[in-house]
Write a structure and sequence with these properties.
Chain lengths: ~260, ~260, ~325
Amino acid sequence: MRNKLLFTGLIIILFFSIIAILAPLISPYNPSEIDADSLLVPPSPRHLLGTDSLGRDILSRMIYGARISLSIGFIAVGIALAIGLVLGALAGFYGGLIDALIMRFVDIMLCFPTFFLILAVVAILEPSIFNIMVIIGLTSWMGTARLVRAEILSLKEREFIQAEIAIGASDFRIITRHLIPNALGPVLVSAILGIAGAILLESGLSFLGLGVQPPTASWGNILIEAKSTLGVAWWITIFPGLAILITILGFNLIAEGLKEKLG
Amino acid sequence: MENLLEIRNLKVDFYLKDQVVNAVNGVNLDIGNNEVLLLAGESGSGKTISALAITRILPSTARIVSGSIFFEGRDLLALDEAALRMVRGARIAYIFQEPTSYLNPVYSIGSQIIETIMLHQNKNKLQARQEALELLELVKIKDPQRVLFDYPHQLSGGMNQRVFIAMSLACVPKLLIADEPTTSLDVTIEAQILELLLDLKKRFGFSLLFITHNLSIAKKIADRISVMYKGKIVEEAATAKIFDSPEHFHTRELIRAYEKIGKL
Amino acid sequence: MLSYIIRRLLGIIPLLLGITIISFSIIHLAPGKPTTIQQALNPKVSLEVRERLDKLYGLDKPLYVQYINWLGRLVKLDLGRSFGDDRLVVDKILERIPITLVINLLSLFFIFIIAVPLGVKSALKPNQAFDKYVTIFVFLGFAMPTFWLALLLMNLFGIQLAWLPISGIKSLDFEYFNIWGKIGDLSRHLILPVIVSSIGGLAGISRYMRSSMIEALAQPYIYTARAKGLPEKSVVYKHAFRNAILPIVTILGLSIPGLLGGSVIFESIFAIPGIGRLFYEAVMMRDYPLIMAEVVLGAVLTMFGNLIADIAYAYVDPRIGYKNEK
C-alpha cells in the first residue's frame, strides 16, 4: 500500500521530468510560434491539445512549461532548504540567544501571508523566472527551519552526539556530519511537499500575470487565456490545469509514501 | 456455580496490517467471592488483554477468538453490547496503571464521577454530585468539595488514583479489576493505595483481580496467585505455596526479581 | 489564565516591530530609490507624484529616520494616498474589508461544518470504503490549483448550465430588488467564490480532524469511558471528540494567511471588490502606499488571528492556562 503511493508518485514525477528534459526533442512545434491560420483550433491530429488565440500549439507550450514549472519548484525549494537547514541547525545546536533570535524571526515571517509578500516583492522587482524562484525560496524556508531545529534538539540528547561533544569534535563537524544527516528524513518529506507548494504558487502568480512572463510558457500563464476563452476553447482550460493537478498529486503521493515509510 | 468469575479457554488474537498475532492463548481463571487473585507476569504476557477481554473493552485490532467468561452465572461473551454495558462499571469496574492519562483531561473530576453514577443509578444530578462528594471522602481525599471542580492534571498521580478508585466503586461492583494500579506511583503512595483498596474491599465486599509484574505486593494482598507467561497461565496456587515451592521457571524468575528488589 | 493572556499580549510587541521592519525593508529592496523604479515601470506617474512619494517616505533622510517616521505615521493609521486615484489608503482598504471578511468567514464556517464530520466519520472506520473516498477527495483538494477550480466551476455553472453568475457580487439591477431579492442575489454571487476558497481548507481540516480523532480514540481515557459502561456514541462524541476538536481551534488561526493569500486569487477571478483584488490592482499599478499598507495589514491580521486562536485554545483546554500559572 505505502509503496504503491510512493511508486505512483515517482512514476508521475519521472514522466513530467523526462518531458521537461527532452522538451526540444519531443515538442511538435516551437512553443512561441504564432500561426495566424490556426487560431483556437480544438484538439486534432495536427495539434493534439489544440491551439491558443495566437495559434500557438498548446501541447508544445505545455512541454516547455513543464521545464519552467518544475525547475522553479526544485530551485525555489533548494533555496528554502538551504536557508532552513542553516538557520534551523544554528538555532537547534546553539540554543540560547541565537535560538531565540532565529525563532522570533521565523515567527515574524510566518505572520506574512506568503502570497502578499511575494506579490509585494514582484511589484518592486519586476516578475522574472529568476526573481520568482528566489522570492518563493526566501518566503518558504520557515517550516524547514522549525523542523530541523526540533529534530536537532531531540538528537542532541542522544548518546552518540553527547559522545562527539565529549571527545571535543568541532561544532561544524557535529552539525554537518551527524545532526543534519539524521534530521534529513522529515526534512525530505517537507521539501517534497514544498516543491508542490512552490509549483502551485508559481502557477497562481503566472495566472495573475505576475509570474513567468509570456512568451515564455509556464502552466500557469497558458491558463491566463482560459478565462477570456471560457466556454469557447475548453482545451486551453483543461490540459494545463490537469498537468498542474497531476504533478502536485505526484509530489504529494511521494511525500505521503515517504512519510509512512519513515514511520 | 460457586465462583464469581470463571474464564475458560480464552483466546485473543490481534489482527495487524499483514499478520495475526496471538496474545492470549487458552487462559483459565477462577475468582471466588471476596477473593483477591493476583495475576502476575512480565509485560507482554497477555495479562492486560485478558483483563480487558472480560468486559470486551479491547483495542479495535483485537478479537476474542474463543472461550467463555462466566460472571454471576452468565456467559459475558454471549451477551450483546447493550446487556454488557449494564455490567461494565456497575458489576465489574476497572482501575488502571496511569490514573492521570486514564482520566479524561478535558472534563472535571466531578463530572467524570457523576457521569458514572448517573449512567447506572436512577439519580438526578444533585444526588449524583452528593454521592460523588461522599465517594471522594471515602477514598480519603482532602477538600473533596474543591477536587470535584479540579481537572486531572491539577492533581498528583496518587490523588488521581484515589479519584479513579472512587469512580470505580460508585456503583458498588462485585469485581474490581486493578491493572498495575500502583506501578506509576512511588513506594509510600503505593502502600497507601494498597491499604485503601483492602479497606474498601472489606467494606464493600468485592472480589479483586490484581494485575502486576511485581510480586512484592503479593504477600500483602493476595489470596491466590496465577502466573501468566506468553499468553498462558503457567502456574496457579495459594500465595504461600507459590512462594514456598514455585514450579514454573517464570514464577521463579518473578520471585527472584522481587527478592533482588527486597535486598536493595 | 489572565496572566497568560497578558503575557501573550506583551509577546506581540516584538512581533509587531519585526513585521514593520520587514515590510519597511521591502520597499527598499530595489536597487536605487523606489521612486525612480516606480517611474520607470509606470510612466503614468508624474514628477509631482514622485516628489510626494519621496516626501512620504522621507527618502532623503537616513534609513532609520525613515523607518521611525514611517512607523509613527503607521501608528496614526496615516498610510498616505493611493497613486491611482489619490484617495486615502485607509479609506480604500476599509471599504474593501467587509466583503473579504464575509467570504472568508463563510468559507471557514462551511469548512468546519463539513470537514469536521468528514474527519470524524473517516476516523471511526479508518481504511474502509468511506475513509478511502474521503482520502481521495483530500488528495485532490490538496493538489487542486484554486484558480483552475474557479475556471472549471465558472465554465460549468456560469456558462454551460447558466445557473450562477460568475462575476462581481451583485447584479446590475440589484438596486431594484426588495430586501430578500438582494440577499438572494448576493448569495448567488457568493456561492462559487465560497466554494473555491473553501476547498483547500476542507481537505486540510478533514485530514487533520481524522488523525486527531484517531489519536484521541486510542487514548487511555477512552478505555475508561468504555469500562464505565458508556454507550459507544458517548465514548466517541463526548470523550474522544472533545479532545480531538481542541487542536482544530489553533488551525483556525494558522489558516488565516492562506485564506488572505487565496483572496487575491479568487477575488481577481470573480471580480469581487475585496482587499485581495485591491491588492492585485495595487500590484498591477505599482501603487506602493497601498501595497505597503496591505502587507502590514495582512501580517497584523494573521498575528491577531494566531493570538485569538491561542487564547481560545487556552480557554477551552483546561490544561493550558494552568500550566502557565505554575
